[in-house]
Amino acid sequence: MDKYNEPLDTIFHALADPTRRAVVQCLVKGPAPVKELAAPYNMALPSFMKHISVLEQAGLIASQKQGRVRTCTFNPDKLAAAEQWFEQQRAIWASRFDNLDNLLTTLQGETDET
Questions:
Q1: Where does the record place the HTH arsR-type domain (predicted)?
Q2: Cα 87 → chain centroid
Q3: Per-residue pLDDT of the chain (114 residues; tens, 9 = 90+)
Q4: Which of 32, 40, 60, 114 reaches 20 to 30 Å from 90, CA-CA?
């Protein structure tokens, strides 16, 4: 089993919430003010800011305040760890499915010979 990976855990925790995933999807298009990001959600701004805080702690977004406006930007580099983990899992499962396919082919050949 992999050793504990806090950055990866933090990223998955941040992306586990549908509101936070939607914020990331919006920010992929470009920077946006918090007020604009919060508009589609029926929640108070302090509650929405908790979502922003979780995303910032995971390093997925950064925010900068100019005057009264806080603007958020997406940091795609932080997703590299999650991407690498998914690729490792795909490789493991692809190998297992290849082994299963080989076994089934062998068993089918044995059945055809009898």
A1: 1-94
A2: 13
A3: 445 567 889 999 999 999 999 999 999 999 999 999 999 999 999 999 999 999 999 999 999 999 999 999 999 988 888 888 888 888 778 776 766 776 777 777 777 766
A4: 60
Q: Count CB neighbours of 85 within 10 A.
A: 15
Helices (H), the chain: 6-15, 18-28, 34-38, 45-57, 79-113
Using the structure block, give the residue that is written with the tokens 């992999």. Answer: 2
- What's the predicted TM-score (pTM) here? 0.73
Task: Report which secondary-structure segment, H or E, holds 65.
Answer: strand 61-66
- Residue 76, token pair as written in the block: 């795609």
Say which DSSP state 41 is in. S
Length of the chain, in residues: 114
Which domains are assigned to the chain? 6-113 (1.10.10.10)
- Report the Cα–Cα distance between both ends of the chain, in Å, rounded: 42
